[in-house]
Amino acid sequence: MILLLNSAVMPTEGVYTLKQISKSKFRAILQEAAATGAFRSYIGYPETARLIEQLTGIEIEVSREQAVLAIGDVMLIVKLRHRVADASTKMTLQLSMDALEFYRCEWKPLDEGGI
User: Fold this and answer.
1) Which of 63, 89, 100, 108 is the most exposed place for a label (fewest CB within 10 A)?
2) pLDDT at residue number 36
3) E-strand spans in 22-68?
4) How much of the chain, in percent, has pLDDT values that exceed 90?
């Protein structure tokens, strides 16, 4: 399953491998997962969801739920290049694609060969 997030978080203990990817690679991975129904959105901000929809053509649900990982899951992460100076404005930001970075993150539980 592909978990779509708007920040690089570690929601459970384990070993994480984070790699920055291109916008086109992000789009291809998400479109492939959407074609098989194998993704879940944990995007918490409407403006971020809108930009991902614009990039991929996929409807992105806004969700403030905490991501829960299972063995085999991969996180696709869209995050701002810079922190927002005033956190109270995060819900109303007007973003452009240039404000975003894209990452792929793999996770393994500690008992599956971790530290």
Assistant:
1) 89
2) 96
3) 39-42
4) 67
Say if 112 falls within a structural domain.
Answer: no
Give tens-digit pLDDT for 59-114: 999 999 999 999 999 999 998 876 555 555 544 456 677 789 999 999 999 875 54
- Which domain, by its residues, includes 69? 2-105
Give the number of domains in the chain. 1
Q: Is residue 111 part of a domain?
A: no
The answer to whether residue 115 sits within a structural domain is: no
CATH assignment of the domain containing 101: 3.40.50.11170
pLDDT of residue 2 exceeding 90, the answer is yes
Taking the mean position of all CA atoms in its chain, how far away is CA 87?
Answer: 19
Which residues fall within 8 angstroms of residue 39, CB to CB, at 6 or more apart?
1, 2, 3, 4, 30, 33, 76
Q: Which two tokens stand for residue 43?
A: 């995007």
Residue 113: inside a domain: no
